[in-house]
Amino acid sequence: MEIHVDNIVKLKKQHPCGSYEWKVLREGADFRLQCEGCGHQVMMARRVLEKSIKEVR
């Protein structure tokens, strides 16, 4: 799956703030994502992220 820095990914599950969209800040074996709704940042393993992606923009 092609995921790069500055892409917006839409996940299957909603963040508690109500947003489904996350901005990719770092890529590699794991990704750093920033919520587009509230700005919260999380680290997620590549395998977990690829399973939970609905759409990449």
Q: How does this model look, in words?
A:
The model has no long low-confidence stretch (mean pLDDT 97). Helices cover 12% and strands 44% of the residues. The protein has one helix at 46-52; strands at residues 8-11, 21-26, 30-35, 41-45, 53-56. The protein has a five-stranded antiparallel β-sheet, covered by helices on one side. A hairpin with a 5-residue loop joins strand 3 (30-35) and strand 4 (41-45).
Note the main attributes of this structure.
mainly beta, 1 helix, 5 strands, globular
Question: Topology, pairings included?
Answer:
Blueprint: E1 8-11, E2 21-26, E3 30-35, E4 41-45, H1 46-52, E5 53-56
Antiparallel strand pairs: 1-2, 1-5, 2-3, 3-4
Major pleated sheet: 5 strands, antiparallel
- Whole-number mean pLDDT: 97
Please tally the β strands and state the result. 5
Written as H for each helix and E for each strand, in order along the chain, the element string is EEEEHE
Q: How many structural domains are formed by the residues?
A: 1
Query: How helical, in percent, are the residues?
Result: 10-25%
Strand order of the largest sheet: 4-3-2-1-5
- Beta strand %: 35-45%
Spans of at least 5 consecutive residues whose pLDDT stays below 50 are none
- The number of helices is 1
Gross morphology:
globular
Estimated radius of gyration: 10 Å
> Distance between termini?
12 Å
